[in-house]
């Protein structure tokens, strides 16, 4: 299962609107012993978030879903805001950040990293 973004996905993200703020939805499924590895990754990643203007908005443990198909439950959910898609792209390309990503990779068996943007009012409830 995929846990890290690919170069093509990062290029697509930046091409959408590199100056637009983005909130990343992170859905995480941990490997055995992965929570401790992810905690260490998070501790080290905080430096890079700060450097590139990112902000952890929310981090929480997953609970049994009320509405979902089998296998759609997640161990943890994070929301991380970046001042721009370009800032996120610069962060993940930073050589120092790239050195710590192996912790994240080893910590997870599966992940979703979903960029989001505020609703514009069209098609909303």
Can you walk me through this structure?
With 125 residues, the protein is α+β, with helices and mostly antiparallel strands. It is 40% helix and 26% strand. The chain has 4 helices and 4 strands. The protein has a 4-stranded antiparallel beta sheet. Helix 2 packs antiparallel against helix 4. The longest helix is centred in the middle third of the chain and has 18 residues. It is globular and about 35 Å long. The termini are far apart. The mean pLDDT is 88.
Percent range for helical residues?
40-55%
Radius of gyration: 15 Å
State the helix count. Answer: 4
Question: Which class best fits the helix and strand makeup?
Answer: alpha+beta
**Secondary structure tally: strands:** 4
What spatial order of strands do you see in the largest sheet?
Answer: 2-3-1-4
**Arithmetic mean pLDDT:** 88
Strand/helix succession? HEHEEHHE
Identify the overall geometry. Answer: globular
Strand content bin: 25-35%
Uncertain segments: none
| Intertermini distance | 34 Å
Major sheet, described briefly? 4 strands, antiparallel
